[in-house]
Amino acid sequence: xxxxFFSLFLSIFSIVAFAQNPIDGSWKGSRETPNGIFEVNYxxxxxxxxxxxxxxxQRGESPxxxxxxxxxxxxxxxxxxxxxxxxxxxxxxxxxxxxxxERGEMKLAKQ
Length: 111
Known about the structure:
The protein is mainly β. It has one helix and nine strands, in the order αβββββββββ.
């Protein structure tokens, strides 16, 4: 009986411990600008309440800085030279995140 209980406990613990956060992974979005369509790709990784990853565009890439996660809400910043852009966002479904910054809103689709 002890072996059965221990095996069951270990199985449940393994599933919970290795469950992937739905924010993890590759996301893609685009926005219309005066200079044409601006495409951006994000790679997010969540560890507890910390968000890390990479922001990639046609102009290059930058690491995600100061990233936090609170439930379905995220916040982070990206440095572009001497300029820092802050973002807030929310996971609205398993396949969509809505991000906001000083220039407006962008919907990201999971890749």
